[in-house]
Write a structure and sequence with these properties.
It contains 14 helices and 13 strands. The longest helix is centred in the middle third of the chain and has 18 residues. It has a 6-stranded mixed β-sheet, with helices on both faces. With 314 residues, the chain is an alpha/beta fold. It folds into 2 domains: 241 residues, Rossmann fold, CATH 3.40.50; 59 residues, Alpha-Beta Complex (CBS domain Like), CATH 3.90.1280.
């Protein structure tokens, strides 16, 4: 668990409450917690104080009860995975050499490094036989970002910090990387602190979302469904915008919805039972009669329409 206990960061010569002012927050082990909020609200500053790239002015940050100030900064940073938007791969090193950066610093032997690099490249979907000897310039932006994630995982850290890692990627590759992160999390179960300004990304990825305003004030800290259903402050409502309820539909899966039975012929417009209410809403709007068949393989599980969507989203 990562604990912020009345943490502040003030810069000399700057008036006001500071970049971060009196932040108290607990990040449970094994969860993805997303810091989201407007530019300049202290998201990245808060993130960087965890691995002491930025030192707090006051307060305490602890990991599993240990004050991070009691640890050597370099050792602390090597024990925490760190992924940034710019990726930061060494251009003159191969993919394998980039992934092996921290294991080399920790003096792993060559066989152990090679085994770990191959394991990680397989994990992120870049087979070592095809990618290990390539240079970063030979990769797409999405592939480079995957290598950055693999490098952060190299020494199997319990914690990963991700600072807008997909912000510079095109929308299609970004969605693929988000899905890849969720898949990886099912396998590796890390404590991930993720910074973004995109509320849709926060809602999709986060087990919990901390919506911050100026000075890293916590306007609301909650699971995505609760955040969207019950905004705690006017600032949360304003940041979520008018699409708040539509975003909430993306969190409700059709498998968990009470569908209408099929009476007579099933509607010709269909949606897969593995989808969400947002998928169903899109299909309902396309359907000539406003009804959609929910299919589970070759079987029609039921019918969804506007009434089903409204009741399920309440």
């Amino acid at each position: 668990m990562i604990t912020f206990d009345h943490v502040s960061k003030h810069y000399a010569g700057h008036d006001g409450p500071g970049a971060v002012h009196d932040l108290s927050l607990e990040i449970p082990s094994g969860e993805i917690v997303v810091f989201v909020g407007p530019s300049g609200c202290g998201k990245t500053t808060s993130l960087k104080m965890i691995n002491r790239l930025i030192e707090p002015t006051s307060g305490t940050i602890s990991i599993d009860g240990e004050d991070t100030r009691k640890r050597d900064p370099n050792e602390l940073r090597r024990s925490i995975g760190y992924v940034i938007q710019a990726i930061g791969l060494f251009p003159h090193r191969t993919v394998a050499e980039n992934v092996a950066t921290v294991p080399h610093l920790d003096h792993w032997d060559k066989q152990r490094i090679d085994t770990r690099v191959n394991e990680l490249l397989e994990l992120i979907g870049l087979p070592p036989r095809d990618y290990a000897k390539r240079l970063p310039a030979e990769l797409s932006g999405g592939e480079r970002q995957r290598v950055g994630v693999a490098r952060a995982l190299a020494v199997d850290p319990n914690i990963m910090l991700m600072d807008e890692p997909f912000g510079a990627i095109d929308p299609i590759a970004r969605e693929r990387l988000q899905n890849e992160l969720l898949r990886l999390q099912q396998v590796v179960r890390k404590t991930i602190v993720f910074v973004t300004h995109d509320i849709d990304e926060a809602v999709k990825l986060g087990d919990r979302v901390a919506l911050l305003s100026a000075g890293a004030k916590v306007e609301q800290y909650a699971p995505p469904a609760e955040l969207l259903a019950r905004p705690a402050t006017p600032a949360v409502t304003a940041f979520l915008g008018e699409a708040r309820l539509v975003r909430r539909l993306a969190l409700i899966h059709l498998r968990d919805v009470r569908l209408q039975p099929v009476n007579g012929s099933a509607p010709k417009t269909t949606v897969a039972i593995g989808g969400t209410l947002r998928d169903a809403l899109d299909a309902v709007l396309r359907s000539p009669d406003g009804t959609v068949a929910v299919v589970d393989g070759d079987r029609v599980a039921g019918v969804v329409d506007g009434t089903v969507i409204r009741l399920a989203s309440q």
